[in-house]
Design goal:
The protein has 267 residues and is α+β, with helices and mostly antiparallel strands. It has 6 helices and 11 strands. α2 packs across α3 and α4 packs parallel to α5. The relative contact order is 0.10.
Length: 267
Amino acid sequence: MNDDLWLRELIQMERERRDAEHAKLDERWDRLSAGELSPEEEAVLRQLAETTEEGHEAYEAFRPLGPDFQARVVRAVRDQSAAATPRPAPAGAPKPPARLLPFRKRAAAVGGWLTAAAAVAAGLLLFLPGAQPPLPDYKLAGLSGGAIAMRGEPSEASRTFPPGSRFELVARPDTAVPGKIAVQCFLGRGRDLLPWETPPASFKDGVVRIVGTVGRDVVIPPGEWTLWVVVGRPAKLPDAAELRAHFGRSPPRTPDWVALNARLKAG
């Protein structure tokens, strides 16, 4: 046998040995993720993880996620619902692998599990205590009673409410609103806002209706005003400063409240 033939056969034998070893390791990683390894086999993989970088990365990628990981997912969902600003990840959270590993079967399984976990986590937000869906858009469906006063263009028209006249305001959402809502009103001139003692209001499927008699149920100081009607979740309604901070939006709103306005005059 010449040297070239001998060298080729030696290289082929080494290649076959490595392929067999890789196949054996791949099979062990899959069984590790399924929790089917014997203690002796798991000890071999642990030793490999402690002695080689690739072994360490493979062990971290394939080891069973366990109940601790699921508990961290639930805690993360609860933290997200309790705070509007993102928080740093827990100190003990597992870090993603530094680079991709050629274990496609396991990667697909983990990806599918994480996708399902994300869907479950999103669904849990609807069932966590205090979680509420964002409010839909609202429209001022009607401001009636009193009399219409014209000043120049029709867009400058305002409604005048003398004492003893009827006052009725209706704010209607685009879709029915589940859960409790509340209303808070302000009287404004420019960017100056005065809290207005809101008359008794009724709510049905998110529709807000305020009805009363001016001077008795509805007290409006004399003069021209912009009436701001803020509809939102109880305990989430803004104060005057927060409402002013959202004046650049049309309408001013957050996921928890939406503000509408109309011009009026009391005489």
